[in-house]
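Last lecture ended with a question: if I hand you only a sequence, what can you say about the shape of the protein? Today we answer it with a concrete record. The protein is ISKra4 family transposase. Below, first the input exactly as provided, then the predicted structure, then a couple of comments.
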Amino acid sequence: MRFAIQLVTDVGDATFETREIVSIDKPDGVLSIDDLGLTLGEAKAMLATLQVAITETQALDFARYHRSCPSCRRPRRLKDKRMITVRTCLGKLALPSPRYGRCRCQAVPSVIAPVVAALPERVTPDLIALEARWASLAAYGVTAALLADMLPIGETVNASTIRNDVMRVAKRLEAELGPEQAMFASGCQAEWNEMPIPGPPVTIGIDGGYVRSWTDWPANFEVIVGKSLPEEGPVRRFGFVTGHDEKPKRRLHELLVSQGITMNQEVTFMSDGGDSVRDLQLYMRPNADHVLDYFHIAMRITVLQQMARGLPPPVSAAAPAIIEALQSVRRYLWHGNFSRALSLVEDLDDGLDLLDDPPPEVRKLRRYLGEFSGYITNNAGFIPNYAERHRYGEAVSTAFVESTVNQVIAKRFAKKQQMQWTPRGVHLLMQLRTRVLDGILDSDFKRWRNERRSPPNEAKMAA
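The predicted structure:
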């Protein structure tokens, strides 16, 4: 038996044009799982043929409609017939693009190419959206293979093409970002008091990760990742490359605005206390509370205790006392008493300084003690009473951000696969990845689609 699909075009005035698009033959009297319905290859070929027929009709109809001069309505002279290439989800198209000469009523010579003017972008938004979504979650080569398997695009899309399309989308999003400011907390106390009752508190965790550098191998560069966790509403993520992004505060501010966080709302910023994130969280909201992540404090103390256990004889005899002193430092910091903790660290360093000809393990321990002391000193203003926060059910660590670091950085930029990246490539791709994970990338494409729906300008048709 034979199945035929016809395309019926209503050209107006009760006139219809009918033509056969594709036909499929199936054996008579046979029913098997192999021949049931359309195969994937047949469906892809059918859609590709249908796409070509519809788009050719659209392009020729649009060109005929704009052949008349807008001033005198006389048809313009046909200069030549050309073709333009457009990539869609259903194949790569070669569309007819006739060009018309100037009308006699126009003084300035010009050539009109209506199809070229109507299609300044030669990739459909649906295809770019698929490429951006999939490429943010998987490698460029894997994305090209998936698109070729699922869509009738053949071998017209490769990893380089997808990367270029994805970078173009990311750069457009970056261009929409406002200017950077040193302070985004605005207004005064009187204005904040007159504002409506704010929503529940919001916790924002900020942490960092590292990606292998392609330009400076085997070095790594730092990537900052954050996650906003409100008590009500969806979570939001953000990320940027340290030293490459010129608008980190603006990026964080836009995240707060997108979640409707007002100036009189309580916000808790939690970070690891690194130099790259310490200044990021300042002056964002007047009611902000800045907290140093206790997890990083505990991990640093654990490393110091492990180094004390590895001291060689005869210094190893003092290892239990050093470990107990470090445990006291941990308890003091847990209760927010950083001054007493720093005093104990200083006493430990002074005691180790009394040793004559100390072994390398002792010198290493003293160096780490000095780094820990500087770390606590630089972040003393961010150390609260963790025990009290814990009793009231408030967050004391950025454990929820650790999963975000793995989700945003490790799973795509694949540290285990030894992949190498440029800071620009990571930064741009990360803007798409965070939007995909938050489920808001489609809203950007919808907004751009609405912007394109404005009437075309006749002046843009001059080729």
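Comments.
1. Confidence is low (pLDDT under 50) at residues 458-463.
2. Strands lie at 2-12, 15-25, 78-88, 91-100, 202-212, 220-230, 236-241, 267-271, 288-292.
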